[in-house]
Amino acid sequence: MKKFLALLLAAVMVLGCFALAHAEELKADDIPDTITSADGTYEVAFVTDVGSLKDKSFNEGTWNGVKLYAAQNGLTYKYYQPANESSATDQDRIDAMVAACEGGAKVVVCAGFLQEAALRTAATRFPKVNFIFIDGYQLADANGNTLTNVAGIAFKEEQAGYLAGYAVVKEGFTKLGFSGGGGGTNPACDRYGYGFVQGANDAAAEKGVNVECRYTWQYGGSFSSSPELQTMMSGWYESGTEVVFSCGGKIFDSISAAASANDAFVVGVDVDQSIDTANNTVREYVVTSAMKGISEATFIAIGKNYDGKWEDIGGKGTSYGIKDDAVGLPVDTWSLENFSVDEYNALVEAMKNDTVKVDATNLEGGAIADVQFSNLTVQYE
After folding, report:
1. Which residue has the higher pLDDT, 167 or 56?
2. How far apart are CA 79 and CA 320, in angstroms?
3. Matching CATH topology for 2-155+294-324 and 157-291+340-380?
4. Domain residue ranges in the chain
5. Which end of the chain, N or C, is less surrounded by CB atoms within 10 Å?
6. What is the pLDDT of residue 26?
């Protein structure tokens, strides 16, 4: 947790938005999940994506940013999970957003691209409320007018995926796996996966070896854990897969259970999943995590509202990447032994100065089947 807060402070300072005073004294897990005022209203609201609030990934990372900003600045806050959980409809999401706005929220943070239709409705109905669309983009109303009260915040996940794929092959793994959430229709997961195989291929080419990667979207559509996914991953590990990039919220639970049972390994996603914050333990089977600054970006975007700088992000789509220090690997906690921090830093620098370029094409689902790799074979399942 200390490392996470240090990363939060570093990212905020790098992005140049404002100093995060006393951040090291705050721990997201120690901050209550709801603080309302005496009259039952609150200023900041969070509407979750599919899956649970404490998913150790996307929802939780976003929520941590909300709580840290609110606690830092003495604001009241509350979260909403749309009805029907993984089967939530647009109306379920609208209902959650409307409840937040009617409850007094001045800022509503909405996580996940599935929020688009509901956000368009809610932002049009409540023009004085500012909405932060995490993993989102610029939105317009039904008449095509830009919704200036919506800030789309996205990330260059392909760069984080590239770093992870490159690292595990440099470490010595040659039989890889990728299991994605969203069924191949989630842009962030698509970018993670495509970056992962690009990085793995480039590292293999440098080493003069060939690697294999099993690639699937099965059982990840709802971003939930399932016995079926765990069984599938166990089969992969038993037949030789050494490490799987778990890319989709709670599917991590199924994949990590299979890895642990087979003395195999996992690459985490979105946040540093090598740390089990609930038990304050280290997950030895997580070799590294492809991280993006969800908490940091959420913190910064909320601050834009309260600092009177909403025009910097409102009505726009903002994408953070390697040049913003907004994606990367957790060098303080990874268990990699053959890929050094110095080598990692050199790779990051090469990406920043465009010596190493990652294809940012948003290839949906299994479309990367059309891409030819020099030293990597992809097996789609």
Report:
1. 167
2. 25
3. yes
4. 2-155+294-324, 157-291+340-380
5. C
6. 65
Instruction: Enumerate the β-bridge partners of residue 175.
Output: 212
Q: How confident is the model at residue 35 (pLDDT cuts 50, 70, 90)?
A: confident
CATH architecture of the domain 2-155+294-324 equals 3-Layer(aba) Sandwich (3.40)
Q: Which residues contact 347 (CB under 8 A, 6 or more apart)?
A: 163, 166, 356
| pLDDT value for 18 | 30
Name the CATH superfamily housing domain 157-291+340-380.
Response regulator (3.40.50.2300)
Alpha carbons 67 and 60: distance in angstroms, whole number:
10
Which residue stretches of 76-156 are H helix?
Answer: 90-102, 116-125
CB atoms within 10 A of CB 211: 24
Share in percent of the chain as helix, strand, coil (round to 5): 45, 20, 40
Q: Which residue has the tokens 């800030």?
A: 151
Q: 24: how many CB neighbours lie within 10 A of its CB?
A: 12
DSSP run (H or E) holding 237: helix 227-238
Task: For helices 58-73 and 294-306, give the axis angle rounded to 10 degrees.
Answer: 40
The residue to which tokens 């807060």 are assigned: 5
Nearest of 246, 247, 219, 216 to residue 231 by alpha carbon: 219
Q: Are 254 and 225 in contact (CB under 8 A)?
A: yes
Report how far residue 301's alpha carbon sits from residue 69's, in angstroms, rounded to the nearest whole number.
10
- Prediction pTM value: 0.84
Is the CB of residue 245 less than 8 Å from the CB of residue 177? yes
Average pLDDT over residues 234-240: 98
Distance CA 283, CA 270 (A): 16
Residues 6+ apart with CB under 8 A from 206: none
Contact 328, 321 (CB under 8 A): no
How far is Cα 243 from Cα 266, in angstroms, rounded to an integer? 5
Pairing between β-strand 130-134 and β-strand 150-155 as defined by DSSP bridges: parallel
Banded pLDDT at 22 (limits 50, 70, 90): very low
Distance between CA atoms of 114 and 119, rounded to whole angstroms?
9
Percentage, residues of the chain above pLDDT 90: 71
